[in-house]
Structure to design on (321 residues):
């Protein structure tokens, strides 16, 4: 129902006190409060982010999809992983895997549970008892809170805010507010990308217009012959405009294909390299809008060259060397 987190540029990046989850859990409005800590370990030769939490409260608060095994039995030597990671390492419940922590210690963990959805829970979950011997700082990055039945969002949020003030006054947000703030950095980057895209489109329009103008100048005699054998002015204008649209379509489709590939590469490179889990998705509506804008821009770029071609004097054009 609500998420408690430190602002991106606040609190010096120190995180939340783990005691905040216990304090919020004692509120009469709260059903479950689960704090999510973060750790790092080497798994199968690669550095991975670990979620340090109470697995029982985690299962009560988050939708983890289909769960094989039990998160209640992790203890100090058990681990829960996502189906994706289990498939990569050919692991299932009951198998063992070795983790190498930043302090150099190695420990063998038994896979007690395999769950379907990672999202905020991450790909690897261990208990606080398992993390305690290797931690350098005990802090949570997020506190997720679900309210009891009948408790309104405003009343529950107000109660959590009163407790949060005593722990550095972190930010208390509803689900929608947290999702919006989490996507803020991505949205800012996309806005910059779209601004650069608009600039690139403008430059491309000038390039198409100049190219067609030069092409018409070089094909003056051919255009005059077409007019002489019966082509009308409107047909000549349409021919030049369609040539512009084809050039724009070629560039648009090539750009979309290359952009989609580079986006997929970026997601593959980022997956597992940070505390967040990335997923690749093609937004069909946005891509369709970009394609439509590209074709429209191509048609607009061909208007001036098309008018110039249609105004050519037929006899003068044929006589051109």
């Amino acid at each position: 129902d609500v998420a408690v987190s430190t602002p991106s540029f606040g609190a010096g990046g120190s995180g939340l006190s783990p005691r905040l989850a216990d304090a919020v859990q004692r509120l009469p409005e709260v059903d479950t409060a689960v704090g999510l800590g973060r750790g790092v370990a080497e798994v199968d030769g690669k550095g991975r982010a670990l979620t340090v939490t109470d697995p029982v409260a985690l299962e009560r608060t988050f939708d983890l999809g289909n769960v094989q095994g039990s998160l209640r039995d992790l203890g100090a030597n058990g681990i829960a992983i996502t189906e994706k990671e289990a498939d990569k390492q050919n692991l299932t419940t009951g198998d063992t895997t070795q983790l190498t922590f930043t302090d150099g210690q190695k420990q063998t963990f038994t896979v007690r549970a395999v769950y379907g959805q990672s999202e905020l829970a991450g790909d690897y979950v261990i208990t606080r008892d398992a993390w305690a011997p290797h931690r350098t700082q005990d802090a949570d990055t997020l506190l997720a809170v679900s309210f009891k039945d009948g408790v309104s969002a405003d009343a529950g949020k107000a109660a959590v805010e009163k407790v949060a003030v005593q722990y550095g006054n972190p930010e208390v947000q509803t689900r929608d507010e947290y999702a919006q703030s989490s996507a803020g950095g991505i949205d800012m980057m996309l806005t910059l990308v779209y601004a650069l895209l608009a600039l690139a489109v403008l430059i491309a329009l000038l390039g198409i217009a100049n190219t067609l103008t030069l092409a018409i100048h070089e094909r003056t005699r051919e255009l005059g012959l077409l007019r002489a054998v019966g082509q009308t002015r409107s047909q000549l204008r349409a021919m030049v405009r369609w040539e512009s649209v084809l050039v724009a379509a070629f560039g648009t489709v090539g750009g979309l294909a290359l952009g989609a590939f580079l986006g997929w590469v970026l997601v593959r490179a980022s997956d597992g390299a940070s505390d967040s889990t990335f997923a690749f998705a093609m937004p069909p509506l946005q891509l369709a809008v970009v394609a439509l804008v590209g074709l429209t821009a191509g048609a607009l770029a061909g208007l001036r060259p098309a008018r110039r071609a249609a105004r050519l004097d037929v006899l003068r054009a044929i006589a051109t060397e």
